[in-house]
Write a structure and sequence with these properties.
1045 residues; RHS repeat-associated core; 53-stranded antiparallel sheet; 15-stranded antiparallel sheet; 7 helices; repeat; Teneurin-like YD-shell domain-containing protein; RHS_repeat; TEN-like_YD-shell; T6SS_VgrG/RHS
Amino acid sequence: MLRSVSVLAAGAVAAVVVPVGLVPVAAGEPRLEMPTSAWSPKAANREVVGGLPPAVSPWAGETDARQPRRTSCATDREGVLPDFPMERFRISDRLQFAVNLSNGNLWVDHLALSVRGTGLNLNLRMSHGVVYSERRWHVNAGRSMALDLSFTDTVLMPTDGKSCARFTANGTGGYSMASNGLRAKLVKNAGGSYTVRFIDTGETWNYNPNGWLLNRTDRNGNAIVYYYNTDGSLASIADTQGRVTTFEAIGARVTRVVDPSGETAAEYTYDSNNNLVEIEDREGETIQIGYNADGRVESLIDQLGRTWSLTYNGGKVSGVTTPRQSGGAVTTSFTYDSATQTTQTDPNNNKTTYTFDSQRRQIQAKDALGHTQSQSWTANSDIQSTTDGLNNSTTGTYDTIGNLLTRRLPTGATATVGYTSPDHPNLPTSTTDPAGRQLTREYDAGGNVTKIRSTPLNADIETRDYSGPKNLLTTVTDGNGRETDYGYDPAGNLTLITPPAPLGQTRLTYDSLSRVSSITDGNGKRIDYAYDRLDRIVAISEHNGPVLQTMSYDAVGGMATRNHGMVSTTFSYDTYPSGRLITTAVRTSAGASETVSYTYDKVGNLKTLVDPAGVATYGYDAANRLTSLADPFGQSTTFGYDNADRRTTTTFPGAGSQTNTYDNSGRLTGVMAKNTAGTELFKASYNYSVDGADRDQIQSRTVNGNTITYTYDSLQHLTQAGSTSYTVDNNDNTTQFDGAPFTINAADQLTAYPNSTVTYDGAGNTKTITSPTGTATWNYTATNQLTTAVLGQTTQVSADYDTTDQTQVRRITENTSGTTTEHVFTHTALGLSSIKVNGTRTSVARDPDGRLVTQQKGTTRHNLIIDHQGSVLAALTTTGTLAATPARTPYGRSTTSPAPVTPFGYHGGYTLNNGLVLFGYRYYNPSIGRFTAPDPTRQERNDYAYAQADPINNSDPTGAWSLPSIGGTVGGFIGGAIGVGLAAACPATAGLGCLGASAVMGGLLGGTGAALGSRLAGGEDEDVSNDGLNGVLGGMLNPLGRFFS
């Protein structure tokens, strides 16, 4: 497998450290104090310093540096652009570096300041790249970002990542699209000024006739404006809300950045050779930078004093040494075999060879086992095709302006995209899936999405309205005609969300840097949030009440402690090429401690996991694929793969094996379990075609000879599964469920179904369920954690949590038919690993991706046969007999009698005795196919529906986001091509995209969420996407498959 460790791997390992949610302090519990690290910024400065840039070329007086800089931009690759093949090393939450695999260039990047804005965030970075003799540090503002207009047929444009985009004259008075996959267009305006427009986002950068950058604006005109001193140095920046950040400089060197609150956000120190040698952040922590005799960066010493070392050969990075506390430092080396080939040797001495085309774009990779994957490019550096290790190709077509038109799977399923708007030729106006189902989109003058419509239904699925001088999203109307309204303060921060009744309004307040300082939910409960100077949440409090949770961090952003009620958790880490990986999580409560620990090999593959059940040990091949798992129960399971890195065999010693088969698109087509004698015990197969035409949804499934056929409606909802039928409305609500009528209110809440009625509180949580047995009342904490469900005088369910949302539940006690069952859970970075049920321990061993492998309940062991969604299809005994073949409805209700041998069944979730399934942030009720509470991250169109009403092809193991689970879907490729354009095609709401007005609530309504710490406090999209996974998405400890950066 062509693998290398990734930033995501480090993040996912820290899954157990997510500071999400909160619960009230019980009487008698120790009160927490507000941490001394909590920081409240002063009122924002709004007085700009400086003015227009001087009336000279930005490069006047820099003759010595200009030519090598021009050469590097015009003929080589520095910094980061979309088609650059980069090997990244993440040092902290604000510092990273990377090696360009094609040419050995080093890129270093430090985020100095991030301030949320309206439409655009202000993100100030200091970046470094090395090409030829040009080794300057680059601030992504001011002179560093000026156009180079000195060429006769080319304009060079610096980008945020210290790279250069080239615009070449097209012979008709204009310029061609930017190089290197940047997807930007340059226009020379009347009067001589220049505008660069980024196609996918609608963001524009505006320059004067000399090339000075004047401002950046979003598609609605919300602008970040740059002001200069008379010598051309940067004086100040006014962000989209008018707050001013100021700069101090010595010549062209920025020495100090002062944020809008008056605090020093970053201070820079240079040596006598003008090399940047120290960066001091707003917390006062420092980063040290060392250079070799050639002036190249040779060391980076982080805020914890750890040293990352670099060596060079011929000016190219030849080695990166990563510091480790255990086992000593490790080195990743790079050998540049030719102009088109590089070999990377990982710390385990396994080699991967990369091949590049004449433009140094990566076209092939060969792993240490000789397996290859490849891709081809268009002239605009869009991916034309990808080919796996079995020579199966997924292909795309593009029009002359770089728009993706079609994407075809190796098995034939094809999706198409149309572009018919004369005002927005690069924004998709239609998408058609392989079954011919079409959605159309309309836009306003700025390119904001105003309507999404289903052609076969002849119905609007969603409409959006915008208003005000900032053109912010004010109303979203769903497919059922129900409106959600949004309100803002004068600066453009989202302050009010009014959903359809009976849900209550949600209100937000902010500090002077637009960090969310409080949220009042639909129940009128207000929670306050405190941050440190680097925008990390350090405390969560009831308004005018006690501190409920505190968190502390080490100097590089790793959570060190979390205190919540009677529970204190401490975390330790070690460093690997992928970044920091968690080594211990120690939970302490009432004087008792429980430790989960991890060790890794030199590249960061999980080597051992120790939890209360014992030690699990993992082995890997030279391509970093898992080959063995010695579980804590005394069994060593082995794994086999095909050349496309798909797991084909799982062998359980003494019991038998699971064999998986796949089609050419990588989709699972068969699962077979056999005993050691080769006797077939279980068989399932999956079909993706209709009358010979390939589709990207499963069309039928056959289990042990019994076939169930699936049909779907025009919005890809499941409508038929064998003899079971479903009716789904235009907003993903199932209104007929297995023939039973469901009553849905305007807030997408199920209020009545046969023999039952349901009510909800103002925040959308299930409040009461009335059935023939009586009325059960559900109770919640201030942040909407379920604590009890009471029927009459009987507490049916009680729960408490280690963290402060529902992802890390510690104990659930059930009372079912007079029988009390207590579940005590142990969480790891892979997911739930150990549960004590009335004192009897059930433990599971998982692979590094979090998939179930084996289980021991008491002293009884089973081997688990799973499908592509993580559902358990069968269980084998240790002697190779079939212990169970759990049967379920499409939405997961068990039809097996007696009870299944494992509580981990449907989509890998843990099932309680009462039938509820634990899926990350939420409880799921498979009997009605819905969650019991709203999506806390507000990423779904429907807050309660499961898997977008298609549980056959989608799953939602986190309770936060439905994901395709079959692999090989063209939708993913199409989504990747147009999703950015669609998300950016509506104005950012306090810096968020179209979905943002509700997504901003995400980590807060149900807790804070890891994503809150980055997104709401001003983090970048990459940090948000990574951090948002950490709390609930188990697995990913295995270094992620990295072929193309």
